[in-house]
Specification:
CATH topology: Alpha-Beta Plaits
Structural class: alpha+beta
Distance between the termini: 30 Å
Order of helices and strands: EHEEHEE
Helix content: 25-40%
């Protein structure tokens, strides 16, 4: 059964390849959705897939790429949408 979650990651998460890291982790887990930088220096992600894949994805986000520092992460459930067909990096 599909689930969707929204993640807002704060810390040193911009300028360190975090969006590319999130994209690669999502693709590896077979998730769909998007990732983008926010003006307040956080990274926002909406991802959907099966519960186990989302859990592994969340654990990867909490680690982040080398050079990143994740200080906090807010995780909320989102409604599942059929409009996601891939996982993409948004501008």
């Amino acid at each position: 059964m599909l689930e969707a979650k929204r993640f807002v990651v704060s810390g040193r998460v911009q300028g360190v390849g975090f969006r590319f890291f999130a994209h690669d982790a999502a693709v590896r887990e077979g998730l769909t959705g998007w990732v983008r930088n926010q003006p307040n220096r956080t990274v926002e992600i909406v991802a959907q897939g099966d519960a186990e894949s989302l859990l592994r994805f969340e654990m990867a986000l909490r680690r982040g790429p080398a050079g990143a520092r994740v200080d906090d992460m807010i995780v909320d459930r989102e409604p599942v949408t059929a409009s996601f067909t891939i996982f993409q990096i948004e501008p």
